[in-house]
Amino acid sequence: MERTPEPTKEDERQTRRDLRAVLVFGFVAATIELGLILYFFW
Questions:
Q1: In the chain, N or C: fewer CB atoms in 10 Å?
Q2: What share of the chain is helix, strand, coil (3-state, %, to 5)?
Q3: How far is CA 24 from CA 10, 32, 35, 38, 41, in A?
Q4: Which residues contact 15 (CB under 8 A, 6 or more apart)?
């Protein structure tokens, strides 16, 4: 069985950065969507 190499520190940093970007993008998208829903149905 082959073992996968351990993730390097740079990979961990990149993963953390990507997760943060996804969370920020999701929050912004949800806020815009909620604003549009309130605008059109208020």
A1: N
A2: 80, 0, 20
A3: 21, 12, 16, 21, 26
A4: 7
What pTM was estimated for this model as a whole? 0.67
CA distance 20 to 16: 6
Give CA torsion, residues 20, 26, 30, 31, to 10 deg. Answer: 30
Sign of CA dihedral 13, 19, 21, 23: negative
The pLDDT value recorded for residue 28 is: 98
Percent of the chain with pLDDT over 70: 83
